[in-house]
Design brief:
Layout: H1 12-20, E1 31-37, E2 40-48, E3 54-59, E4 72-73, E5 80-86, E6 93-99, E7 105-108, E8 115-116, E9 124-125, H2 136-145, E10 153-157, H3 159-162, H4 175-189, E11 193-196, E12 200-201, E13 214-218, H5 225-237, E14 241-246, H6 272-275, E15 276-277, E16 282-283, H7 290-306, E17 311-314, H8 317-321, H9 343-360, E18 365-368, E19 390-392, H10 394-405, H11 416-419, E20 430-434, H12 454-469, E21 474-478
Length: 500
């Protein structure tokens, strides 16, 4: 089993676009691709590791030994290593053994792998996203259903804790099992869209999916890529849209992941003032590096393309746009204009929004989780905006919850909390979120944010929902809030369905 070196999926134009930050389909080139060359079946591998001394493919087929199956660096100094290995097929476990300039050998999972193992080894799996879709009717009309003029009511959910069987904390439902339960429930409740908290592969359950290692892999906790596609297909067949949480803001320092991928700061910014997140102890992408922009925009395109997703809710946009986010004086450096805006991140977000809307038009939506008053976030890029379709209306959420926490006898002093939104509600395109963040970390469930006895709490929460659903803007409600979940959300267990 010797690698064939003189084979590539990359054209010179591909390399040019990659290095310019303009290649938005890198998943067709990088990673592991099962194919046939000169009548021989095998797998083509390619990975970006520009400062590596050597790169080889290791796996259960060569006892995980480095240098047995070496890849070759491309002649064009793009930093890409590649090779075709005959005899391998789908289901094979593999990693890249990367020898750094210092002589250290790193075992890295494939950044473009479509599946990962769910264990400490976290090896990549040669896989495929082939699926026979049956959602043509939805795809043809979704421009209307996803329009800013459409009534949009989103059910936000965490797949690992919406519903579980048995007492085993790892006994998650398969994506297909979720489909059987979720579709009729959403139809009964009248939501128009479902938003899944991150389904990309992540190693640490308490991160809720926001510390991603496998950006192109559907997490194997709940099944295969095809199982997730089945869930999305079933939702579409029942006229229910699908939004995914997408996290281009940071990534964890796991040994298997992107951190110091070839021994250098490859995907992250080398300056810790820009490259390390003090709150989440994670690493921030280098938005000024063209190859990283190609990686991230290709990743967004991947989920919209291969998984037929209708929208991406972009996590932690505030932290991306502000150099001083969660930093004290002296812990950040102003931009070239002397301000606190991360200009490289702003340009990246503009290019991301331009690319996906150019490709998919108004049939998809991008939604920013942004808690400041950053200007023109949902205005077109050609008018100087950032180009998002919508942003979360965080001010409305905080004001509304503060109002409803007040005893009715005092509310006459707080009516401005309800009316203030009318001053700005048409400045941007808004989605009103009562999300997972409002029912964790000691904040209590929504029902127990309300005042009064049990009857009054339920009456107040119903009044809040009436106010919310008659207010301009799209709506988002976290799972459990629709039936008055009494305890805070716990990612380790199922919702309290017995309350019904």
């Amino acid at each position: 089993m010797n690698p064939v070196q003189n084979y590539s999926l990359f054209s010179e134009h591909d390399i040019y676009l990659f290095k310019e930050g303009k290649h938005y389909r890198l998943y067709d080139k990088f990673g592991a691709h099962s194919l046939e060359k000169d009548g021989v079946k095998g797998v083509y591998f390619s990975v970006w590791a520009p400062l590596a001394k050597k790169v080889s493919v290791i796996g259960n087929f060569n006892k995980w030994k480095p240098n047995v199956l070496p890849l070759s660096p491309r002649w064009d100094k793009s930093g890409i290593w590649e090779g075709f290995i005959p005899g391998l097929s789908w289901g094979t476990l593999y990693k890249y053994a990367i020898e750094t300039k210092a002589g250290e050998i790193l075992e890295k999972s494939d950044p473009y792998a479509l599946s990962w193992e769910q264990n400490l080894q976290a090896a990549s799996l040669i896989s495929t996203t082939f699926y026979e879709w049956d959602d043509e009717e939805w795809m043809q009309k979704r421009s209307k259903n996803n329009s800013l003029n459409a009534p949009i009511s989103v059910y936000e959910m965490h797949l690992g804790s919406w519903l579980r069987y048995g007492e085993n904390p790892k006994q998650f439902l398969n994506y297909r099992d979720v489909a059987k339960k979720l579709v009729p429930y959403i139809l009964e409740m009248g939501f128009t869209h479902v938003e899944f908290m991150p389904v990309m592969e992540y190693p640490y359950d308490p991160s809720w999916g926001y510390q991603i290692t496998g950006f192109f892999a559907a997490t194997s906790r709940f099944g295969s890529p095809q199982d997730l596609m089945f869930l999305i297909n079933e939702l579409h067949r029942n006229d229910i849209g699908v939004i995914l949480d997408w996290v281009p803001s940071h990534f964890p320092g796991d040994a298997n992941g992107l951190h110091k991928f070839d021994g250098s700061y490859l995907y992250e910014h080398e300056d810790p003032r820009k490259g390390f997140h003090p709150d989440w102890k994670s690493y921030i992408f280098n938005y000024g590096r063209n190859e990283v922009k190609s990686f991230l925009i290709s990743n967004a395109m991947f989920w919209l393309d291969r998984y037929h997703v209708d929208g991406l809710r972009v996590d932690a946009v505030t932290s991306m746009l502000h150099l001083d986010y969660s930093r004290n004086e002296g812990e950040w450096e102003p931009n070239i204009l002397g301000g606190n805006v991360n200009l490289e991140a702003k340009i990246f977000l503009q290019e991301f929004n331009t690319a996906v809307y150019k490709e998919f038009g108004e049939s998809i939506m991008t939604i920013a989780e942004e808690s400041s008053d950053f200007p023109m976030l949902t205005k077109p890029v050609h008018d100087g905006g950032v180009g998002f379709g919508m942003k979360w209306m965080m001010g409305w959420m905080h004001d509304t919850l503060k109002y409803f926490k007040e005893d009715p006898i005092n509310r006459k002093h707080f009516h401005h909390k309800l009316t203030f939104a009318s001053m700005y509600m048409f400045n941007e395109n808004y989605m009103m979120p009562l999300s997972h963040d409002e029912v964790v970390h000691g904040k209590s469930s929504l029902i127990y944010k309300m005042v009064g006895d049990e009857w009054q709490k339920f009456a107040n929460l119903r009044a809040l929902y009436v106010y919310m659903f008659t207010h301009p803007g799209a709506k988002l409600l976290f799972m459990g809030d629709e039936f008055g979940q009494t305890s805070e959300w716990n990612f380790k267990q199922s919702l309290d369905w017995h309350l019904l």
